[in-house]
Amino acid sequence: MTILLAGGAGFIGPNLARRLAAAGHELLVVDNFSRGLRANLPDSVPCIEMDLSHTGCVAALESALKGRGVDEIWHLAANSDIPAGVEDANVDLRDTFMTTFHLLQLSKRIGVCRFMFASSSAVYGDWGSQRIAETLGPLMPISNYGAMKLASEAQISAAAEGFLERASIFRFPNVVGTPATHGVLLDFVRKLKQDMSRLEVLGDGTQQKAYLHVSDLVDAMLFATARQTTVRDVLNIGPVDDGVTVRWIAEQVCARVSPQATIAYGQGNKGWVGDVPRFRYAVDKLHALGWQPTMDSRAAVLRSIDEIATQEQV
Ligand SMILES: NC(=O)c1ccc[n+]([C@@H]2O[C@H](COP(=O)([O-])OP(=O)(O)OC[C@H]3O[C@@H](n4cnc5c(N)ncnc54)[C@H](O)[C@@H]3O)[C@@H](O)[C@H]2O)c1
Hints:
- This protein is α/β, with parallel strands linked by helices.
- The chain has helices spanning 12-22, 57-65, 82-87, 90-110, 144-162, 184-194, 214-227, 246-257, 284-289, 297-311; strands at residues 2-6, 26-31, 47-49, 72-75, 114-120, 131-132, 166-172, 174-176, 198-201, 208-209, 211-213, 232-236, 244-245, 262-265, 280-281.
- The strands form five sheets. A seven-stranded parallel sheet has the order 3-2-1-4-5-7-12, with helices on both faces. A two-stranded parallel sheet has the order 6-15. Strands 8-11 form a two-stranded parallel ribbon.
- It is globular and about 60 Å long.
- The model has no long low-confidence stretch (mean pLDDT 95).
């Protein structure tokens, strides 16, 4: 099977690429390297540098494929800087939505059958301590990132009526591991690397979220796609627990990287505008399929702190 992996040179992409390549699939990664790196991918995986938000990318990709068919598109390209998108709505319109729009145009032009989409818990908005299942609504995102993920989901759903045979929408929690390109763990490790005496935390540290290790995330997606029987599917992917607090994460990062550091907390329970301070995920649908993660939030975070500290050479 030939698979186009969009945004495949970032954090999750290379982990997925390795699993797909090991299963014998032919891969083509497309990335503009705004955050991703060629070096994150094995040399054996072909990679095209292209901005998928540009209108011309559809024709350019069609010509790069030279008539070769694509069976599946896995769409991982997006803006990963939520505050940047709150500051300037163009960022998520461009990198989170237009990339989806163009990849769907390409799918129609060249006859792609299956479309897998990396969506996010951010589509739900802030539901406080209510457990969030796939059936919950109305969905009212509180960031432009969440809004453009939701708009992308809607566009993919419509495409499944028109020309796609299968559409799989995966709503990720916070995903951790390497090669880390963004996120709270990388942020803390890099801050400590700059100043080993002090760690500044955005917000009061009470934010509580579920974390999944990238190896479990990739495993869950492959498990679920192999069992999908409907034309469209929306699936929460996450651990079973209710997550860990930012305060606990800050303490663990300090313990690993700089035990003598003092931790300075900010005000309020949001790290930034658009931050959902607490979400409780319902993953019953995924469990009913027969999938379980190998790590809970605590184990995933502890393993990833170690992996990221090694990546950052601290
Ligand atoms: N990491 C998480 O915790 C998390 C949580 C929820 C959803 N997601 C989603 O999963 C996907 C992958 O996440 P990630 O953590 O690997 O992010 P990432 O930023 O590391 O990877 C995204 C990749 O997309 C590329 N990209 C961005 N804009 C592009 C454009 N216009 N054209 C071509 N390439 C472009 C970047 O260079 C990068 O390599 C994203 O869609 C993200 O929104 C991630």
